[in-house]
Structure formats: C-alpha cells, structure tokens
Amino acid sequence: MEKFETFTYPLDGNLYINLTSKCTNECTFCVRNEKSDYFGHKLWLAREPSAAEVLERIPADISCYREYVFCGFGEPTVRLNVLLQIARELKRRGATTRLNTNGQANLIHRRDVTGELAGAVDKINVSLNESNAADYAALCRPAFGEAAFDALQDFARRCAERGIDTWFSVVDLIGAEKIEQCRKIADSCGVPLKVRPMIGSK
Ligand code: SF4
Fold this sequence. Notes:
Layout: E1 8-11, E2 14-17, E3 37-38, E4 41-42, H1 51-55, E5 68-70, H2 80-92, E6 97-101, H3 105-109, H4 114-117, E7 123-127, H5 133-140, H6 147-161, E8 165-171, H7 176-189, E9 193-196
Parallel strand pairs: 2-5, 5-6, 6-7, 7-8, 8-9
Antiparallel strand pairs: 1-2, 3-4
The structure holds iron/sulfur cluster.
C-alpha cells in the first residue's frame, strides 16, 4: 500500500485532520480496507504528524473552513496529546472543532479523558454502528472485544455530561429494528442518534 503525508484534507467546506493510520477497530466496512484514497485524498499515512506539522497546514484565516474535523484512516484519539494540542490552538483561533471517533478513548488511555476533550473539542460523533455488544464485536472487530460497546456508550454519556455536543451515528444498512434499539441506547446515554447512508470511514 502506497503511503502519503496527507495530514489535512478539505471536504465539503470542512478541513479534516488525519493524525494516524492506527485504529483499535478493524471494521468490516471500513473504507480503508478497499481503497487507498477517500474522495481523491490519499489517507494512508507514511508517518504520523506532529502537532506543529498539522498547525502549519491550518490557514491563517480560520473562517476558511466551517469545521476542523479530526477524522482520517485511523482512530484520532490514539494520538490524544497531539489531538488536544491542535484542538486547543484551533479553539484559541476561533475555530469550531469536531472529533469523529470509535468512542474507545477511555479504554485506549485507561482513564477518563473526556474532561481533557471538553473545552478543546466542540462536537463529537461517536460511531455506535450496532445495537448490541456481540454484533458490534462481529462488525467492528475491536481489540477490546465486546467490552468496547459498553465503553463507547459510557464515553458518549460522559462527553455529553461535560457539555460537548455529542451524538451517536449508525449506518442505515443495519435495518429499522436495530436502528430502533440504537435509538433506545442513545436515549439512555442522553445523546441523539444520527442515521446515515454507508459511506466514509466513520
Ligand atoms: S471505520 Fe473507523 S473505527 Fe472502523 S476500522 Fe475504520 S477507522 Fe477504525
């Protein structure tokens, strides 16, 4: 697989920040399984960028982009410290920041990191993907096994409680019955559920 240094890429009026190619999931549907690019952007990284290298690629006029989104061919919270450094600087410059995540940051770092995200990240989209732990494990193949499903719910709940605009996403392919179950999970966590067509890696 050819690799690149696509640390940022524009899409739909937002600037996406691609921090890593590592992920704690191995989703069966992940776009990176089939493609080396996403809407023409080559996202497999030859190496991981420093915060300074990403910030060099942020425009002086921060209003050029609607949102600055941590999302690429890996799980952004794997690189939590770099993510926070960039997000804090973006906030200082007046940007709106969003994180697209598998919701496993507290498992990855073995502590509650939601307090660090609050104040740096305005919006968090947690991929729920499934309606129960066994099906989630089969679909997303998490390194943490079925425990990942409860953990991502707890993560989303805590983010929302800290005042971050947080929501779950699922793809419509799972069907109406499962979407209804996902809606109940989202309600119990105090976050909305967004149902989207199956494109993208998050
Ligand atoms: S879809 Fe997202 S969470 Fe799943 S393997 Fe790909 S990058 Fe990781």
